[in-house]
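pipeline/complex-builder :: batch 7 item 3
reading input block
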Amino acid sequence: MECVVQGIIETQHVEALEILLLGLCGVHRVRLRVHELCLKSGPNLAGKTVISAALVPKHQRSDFYVILSSLSPLGNKNSPFFFLCTHIALFAFYHSYRNCIPLYRTVRHVGGSMRGAGADQISVLVRTMVESKVSKNVLRLFYLLGYKLDHELLRVGFAFHFQRSAQITVTVSSVNKMLKLHATDEAVPVTPGIQLVEVTAPASAENYNEVAAAVSSFCEYLAPLLHLSKPGVSTGVVPTAAAAAASLMSYGGTTIM
Amino acid sequence: MYIRVLHWQPNAGHTVSSQILAEVSQCVESINGVKEGKWKATLSFYRPVLKEQANAAEFPRDFLGISLPEQPSKYYFVLRGQRLVLEADSTIQTIMEKLQSYKTRVALNFEGFQYQLGDFQLRVGKVVSIQSESLRGIVMEMEYRPISSWEKSHKIMGEFFDIWQEALSKRSLPGHFVHMEPNFGEFGLSGQYTLQHTAVQYATIMLQMIATAQSVRN
């Protein structure tokens, strides 16, 4: 299981957010470059569709990796960041930004979110999530099993991973689409000028309340710059963002007096 | 590490039995094999869950999943017809269950004992269906530990196999162990031995065991 919240921020304020996160987390950022190939089961193959939210790139040791996922077409027309998710994601990890030699890949299954009165009372989404590291021919396997490519995305940004009552990951990324199949070099932003912020933490059936509280508590520190909410509940940009960003940039020593 | 997976091929008119398995185990001990403990591998055949059965031909027929005791945290998929082997964390089984696109058709256990003979390890076990516990076959793994190069180990393993066959022949059992070396290159595997090679060997011997079972039935 994992707890997750999402929000959006204007690209011009991302540097301020990074300064804030650096101060809050006390760790260096990890560069993020995620190629997400989205699969769906073929027309004659059974498979349960699970409603879920956008996938979150998790912390990885390498700084360049690929996600292959099976998301169904975009679910919320108002926000390109939220998906109706069918049940599976495939990841691949690369040595470095340049040579693109795969180390390994990971399949991720993102299940349905927790529902009911208990779920409504907490401000983060709790959902099942299973990951499995796999060898590099995983995409060929899924094609042979009858899965089809649905769409692909490239996420570029950075992440912070730290311990604060829970193992929290914050990712800030721009989401890009490919004009030609697998042409990541020619990716263009889905929403120019806007970036996606996601906060996730692994949880279990026993401790998700504590983890959710830790995530919510952390999100309050980011409130002047952005508002984070359950995936699918888009709250837009925060009016105080510009002032908060200016203040942070000033504290960050980037303003010359 | 280099492993050769063998299976028992009964002579015409004979079938596998627990008695043969006991004799084989005794034979290992007679050549100074030291029993080390239990050993168990599992193999599942998967079938697609289709909306229309008429289109079954579009999907792979021989889709196997294998877990090996040498690496319990891993799971191996083999698409034999398409010459594909994939290594995954064992959590992939949970993901496959959640996907609900493929179901287990038949699940088999390979279970028995492991023996140490110098640089070699022998694993001898019965093949049983999880559902019925009926004996489906006998399997043997021969492992040569010092070298992982398939080419270099091959000759040494061949010599050991000859010694083993000679020892077993004295017992006049109604059958013999067969080794079918798959073309690992076709599966994209290198000369450096890995457990993916073992998974491919299991997929290959299953083909033989099914063929043998069918010929006996006919």
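note: Chain B has one domain: 2-51+58-210.
queue -> next item
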